[in-house]
Amino acid sequence: MPRWSVQPVPEMTPEQYDKWQNLLEGRTGNHISWQHRSILQANLAGRMRELGLSDYDTYYERVTAADGSLEWTTLVERLTVHETRFFRHPPSFDLMTSFLEQRIAEKQQSGLELWSVGCSTGEETWSLAMTVCQLLRQSKQVIRYSVTGTDISLKALAQARQGEYARRRLGDLSPELQQRYFEECAGSTLRIAPLLRERVCFTRVNVLDLERAPMRNMDVICCQNLLIYFRPWRRRIILGQLAERLAPGGLLVLGPGEITDWTHPDLQQVNNDQVLAFYRL
Fold it and tell me: d(Cα 112, Cα 261) in Å, to the nearest integer?
């Protein structure tokens, strides 16, 4: 009977940690503290074992080599967190629903633009599309709308575009929403229905390069559970750039507790104890 053993994760020296952390933060903005270096070590060691490498320095040389872009992309998939679900944080979606209901009434002659920043595998983006579609159905109005999901992970974006989810991933999604916005696939998998697919797109955007992002005049920008991975000073830079991309009267929704004591001259914080959000003046 074979005996299986798991190789221990090698311990980083402070110098190796600094080198890898600077690379990660410089390219993605993500910060992993020394106290949480085990997360970085485990992900690096797992990939190193697949490549037959035994030390962090050799792998660093491969990733940063002139031809190392493909390997870096592979590593980012490991280091990027993909924690999400449909209608995550209901109070935020309650606020966005109320806002969009009023926005639809105001914009009968124009369209709606929504943006899910750090969309991961797409659940939040599709949830936003369902919210708008439900409101239009209830109001019997017909207006143009689009929802854009962006992320740094190509693998997560591919899953989001596919729009197929195991039934257990739908969580507490009501039977009504499941029936209206999903189609049955093989086994226990459901696929997003065409009426949402035609309104949603996914594209790669690194939040460190937001100045290159084409999004402008957005009615809603939802950026939840992304900023917690950045240093406070970088969060403020990202938020300032997102604020510039809001349309007048637009809504910026963040994750509760992701930033404190932040203000912007063009934004007014929403008076809500459960949601961290701002209106564009």
Answer: 30
